[in-house]
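Internal tracking record. Fields below are filled automatically when a chain is submitted to the structure queue. Please do not edit lines marked as system-generated. If the sequence contains nonstandard residues, flag them in the REMARKS field before resubmitting.
Queue: standard
Priority: normal
Entity type: single polypeptide chain
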Amino acid sequence: MERHESEPLLIISYDWPPMVAGVRRWVKFAHYLPEFDYRPLVVCARPTRFGAHDEEPLHGEVSGVSALMTSSYDPYHAAQQFSRLMGRRGKSAVGASVGADDVEAVSGFRSFARRAARQCLNFCLFPDDRVGWVGPATRAAAKLIERHHIRKIVTTSYPHSAHLVGLRLKRKFPDLYWLADFRDGWVQNPYFRNAPTPLHRYLHRRLEAKVVIKADAVVTVCEPIARHLSAVACNSKPVHVISNGYDSRDYASPVGAPFDKLTLVYTGTLFMQRSPDEFFRALSDVVRTVNRVEDRLQVIFMSKFLPEHYESVHRYGLDNIVRVEPMGSHRAALELQRRADGLLAIEGRAAGAEIMLTQKIFEYMAARRPVLAIAPEGALADAVRASGCGVVVAPEDYEGLCEALRLLLAADGSFPFELNEAYIAQFDRQFLTRRLARLLDMNDLYDYRKEK
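SYSTEM-GENERATED OUTPUT FOLLOWS
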């Protein structure tokens, strides 16, 4: 379809810069879409202080994108309002580190409090704890659709509540073209096992199926999720895979000075099965067998460490090797990756772990540093092997993990790896956006509305 001017595209995403979690995929799409004659407009929730912020807004890439930030009746916005009413400033999730001396006193209580709060929210709020955003987002989106004569929208999850906005808008505007983007699995997600009752699990499955069937197009990030969603729709429509990726512009500047020590780096979140505990245990054993390794090795985590992570570092005697930096800007994370001698990816074995394909693995590929991936068979392991960017060790293969660490130390950071440049090139953000634009143009998408 040929257009003489840019067509407005409405993107409905709960998170948007300056928030960090989950925004990079659509920030990059929004940056490149104008090259393909689309003008992105965004409806998102107002940022809160209860989450990581990137004050550089991903290199200013969203400065030219119109974003309408709405209110939301969810626990995070409510907590911020309560904090203001009490005359206290809400504290960012990228807060001060917890020292080892404080761990024993607070870790047990905090872990219990987190679990109790999470269970309560899982029981009361469906499909997730951002469902209070659906009403404000739908009203704001409907006004933009009417004002700008928008014909195409995108909803992106997580949270899954974003797709409820799509369902409501599709009901109000039947001719609207709706693309539902699943950045994460829904009922496949390891967190799905935390659904409090069989009724909750049943309703999740029903709602997932409704979204997949009602949407005009469905996109996700990896083949395991695509196969599941296609089966949910009884194979009545294709589910397209447009993976996450990297932006080659982020790697144009010179690499900073190397570290004085052999440096292994992890960037990103740690949660549930994505725990560094087994890595710390193996590292501790290897350190004891290698002469004077503490003088020449450091492991940097740019992440939000929980009290149990600090406790694990202390328990295995790694206080002089493991260094924790708070979650910084995207630019700082990329710079740290490029300066490293080796990069670490962690994905534990759990129900649904085969679908987990962390965004950072594509940035690791672009950094062209060897990767040690602790991961079960699945999307992450497949990507590391296909790209040739490093080695994969199964989470339960403790001896294999120790051997990989010895190899890292013996080779001064160089695993035997050979990059598959052709494979890596397909994950460039500009190329991925071109594929997205083709879907929006319906050039390679069957028009299901003809059959409705």
